[in-house]
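Students often ask why inverse folding is considered easier than folding. One informal answer: many sequences map to the same fold, so there is more than one right answer. In these notes we will look at a single instance of the problem. The structure comes first.
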């Protein structure tokens, strides 16, 4: 079973940047596609970004396209999301997740990290 731990959340002003990291316990991290999701208070969890096993394919929610960049370092068992030009509506708990293949359902989830963007 893959254990995922997100770090890097915090409080930032609108227009600022944050980079979230998600470290996996599993030595076969490279065999999983990875994704980032978020959940704002009172809202359903929503997809943010995904990356294929080797990093060749990525996808983004329209709301973050052009501002967020997902990447991964399989040697470090870590996936990242660089978030630029942050907006108050980006405030949410951010989760990373692992799937057995790109586009498949996500089987493993982290505990989440809070991102708060002040106006």
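Output (designed amino acids):
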């Amino acid at each position: 079973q893959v254990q995922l731990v997100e770090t890097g959340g915090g409080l930032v002003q609108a227009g600022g940047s944050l980079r979230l990291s998600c470290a996996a316990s599993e030595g076969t991290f490279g065999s999983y596609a990875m994704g980032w999701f978020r959940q704002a208070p009172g809202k359903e969890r929503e997809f943010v970004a995904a990356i294929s096993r080797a990093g060749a394919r990525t996808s983004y929610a329209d709301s973050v396209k052009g501002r967020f960049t997902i990447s991964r370092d399989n040697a470090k068992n870590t996936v990242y999301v660089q978030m630029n030009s942050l907006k108050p509506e980006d405030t949410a708990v951010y989760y990373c997740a692992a799937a057995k293949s790109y586009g498949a359902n996500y089987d493993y989830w982290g505990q989440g990290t809070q991102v708060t963007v002040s106006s």
